[in-house]
Design a protein that fits this description.
373 residues; alpha/beta; 10 helices; 17 strands; 29% helix; 24% strand; binds nicotinamide-adenine-dinucleotide
Length: 373
């Protein structure tokens, strides 16, 4: 039995990239029963060892050592965006399924090549964000699916912050190719929109950059100035066909933070969703003629980063399709690249890729419990 087909027990998981976000993944994956974290790898071996020790993972070391492990079936790729697909191909070549942090790739060809590689090998690539699988957004998606706002027609999303260089100790990659508010935060908002409306058809956009350099605000490199290589504000109009649209802004240049804002308007009402970069949070439903909204408290199990890895593992076992699929991530990337290109060219961009509807999770879905037979 190969590592990728051994489904009789909790799936063995390895993590590549022991940086900032690995803490959240390790906290959750070490408590979710359908997965067992067996190895943490990083270029920085002491960093990998420290994270493994902190979370009781039995082994750590290099990427090659991880990929040689027979008992690892799924590899969680938490490296920086510039190497996501290189690392992804190495994982696939070792016969293991991939969970990738976002964005899936830096361009459309690289995303398509990764998905084709997986398909040719009979393996899967799934991709963050999995916040959309949390009880908060899922409660709203179930409300939309059962018709609480009628037919969804339009949406407004807003992500406005001063910028992550104040808190992230190595923020350069967030202002380089594959970063900026569009690619760093856009996936949370646009993935939610794709779950609501389905595939996008066309985008229009405008971009700006308020400052050419930023200063690191925390950690050992605090005070260091680095170059801003991508726009730090995008305003987009995303069309989903038949008059359905979303206006979305993604900004690292607002002194006044206003983020986590997603509002979907339908023929019969409006729903305000929780922050799509969190797993919980309540929704509010506005109906015509009502002065006050109806609260829609989040219903479902507590979740967290890594929930998508569990959904991937269960889908592999059941032969189903994981919700945070590579196909959804590739379509979201196509939209984000379309926004970037539309802003750069001052022209609308047609979105060539498409993806089918993604069904909401059942209310009782719980990433923590064991489903192993
Ligand atoms: N920090 C956050 O709050 C956050 C939230 C959600 C998603 N993400 C995403 O997670 C990913 C990682 O972000 P981060 O903030 O943890 O970055 P980070 O810079 O803190 O950590 C990245 C780690 O990957 C390692 N690495 C880089 N290239 C490697 C390679 N080729 N092989 C092995 N290890 C390699 C680095 O040594 C580093 O330890 C990014 O894609 C980011 O978009 C981050």
């Amino acid at each position: 039995m190969t590592a990728a087909t051994n489904r009789s027990r909790a799936a063995g998981v390895g993590i590549i990239g022991a940086g900032n976000i690995s803490t959240q993944y390790l906290e959750n994956l070490t408590r979710f029963a359908d997965v067992e974290v067996r190895f943490v790898a990083d270029l920085d071996l002491p960093r990998a060892a420290a994270q493994a020790e902190a979370y009781g993972v039995p082994a750590s070391g290099s990427v090659d050592e991880l990929l040689a492990r027979e008992d690892v079936e799924v590899v969680v790729n938490l490296t920086v965006p510039a190497v996501h697909t290189d690392v992804g191909h190495r994982i696939l070549a070792a016969g293991k399924h991939v969970w990738s942090e976002k964005p899936l790739a830096l361009d459309r060809d690289a995303a398509a090549a990764l998905l084709a590689d997986a398909e040719a090998r009979g393996l899967r690539v799934a991709c963050a964000p999995d916040t959309v699988l949390g009880a908060g957004i899922q409660t709203a998606l179930r409300a939309i699916a059962r018709g609480d706002i009628g037919e969804p027609l339009t949406a407004t999303t807003m992500f406005h912050v001063p910028g992550p260089e104040s808190w992230h100790p190595s923020p350069d990659f967030l202002f380089a190719l594959g970063g900026g508010p569009l690619f760093d935060m856009g996936p949370y908002y646009v993935t939610t929109l794709v779950h609501v409306f389905g595939a996008a058809t066309r985008v229009q956009a405008v971009a700006s950059t308020s400052r050419q350099t930023r200063t690191i605000g925390s950690g050992p490199r605090a005070g260091e100035v680095f170059d801003v290589q991508v726009p730090t504000h995008h305003a987009a109009l995303i069309e989903f066909g038949e008059g359905r649209s979303a206006q979305s802004t993604f900004s690292f240049q607002h002194a006044l933070p206003r983020n986590g804002f997603v509002e979907v308007n339908g023929t019969d009402g409006t729903i305000v969703l929780p922050d799509p970069n969190t797993f919980d949070g309540d929704s509010a439903l506005w109906r015509y003629g009502q002065d006050e909204p109806t609260a829609l408290p989040a219903k479902g199990a507590e979740s967290g980063r890594g929930a998508g890895v569990v959904d991937l593992v269960r889908s592999i076992r059941d032969g189903g399709t994981e919700r945070a699929s590579g196909a959804v991530a590739a379509h979201v990337l196509d939209i984000l690249l379309g926004v970037r290109d539309a802003a750069a060219a001052g022209q609308p961009v047609e979105i060539a890729s498409a993806v089918g509807p993604v069904a909401p999770l059942p209310e009782g879905w719980d990433p923590a419990v064991s489903t192993a037979g």
